[in-house]
Write a structure and sequence with these properties.
The chain has 48 residues and is of the alpha+beta class. It has one helix at residues 32-39, and strands at 12-19, 22-30. The chain has a two-stranded antiparallel ribbon. The radius of gyration is 18 Å and the shape is elongated.
Length: 48
């Protein structure tokens, strides 16, 4: 697929669990549906 130079936005939620003064765990929940909708090609027109 050729580059289009179109901008996209990407969101995610990141949660960190701190233990003492260090990050013990990280959970990431990306919004992949929104990203895929932006980068997917438009559906082809249906033939009648």
């Amino acid at each position: 697929m050729a580059a289009t130079d179109r901008q996209v936005s990407f969101r995610s939620i990141e949660i960190y669990r701190i233990e003492g003064d260090k990050i013990a765990e990280e959970w990431v929940a990306p919004d992949m549906i929104s990203l895929m909708q932006q980068i997917s090609p438009a559906p082809a027109a249906t033939r009648q």
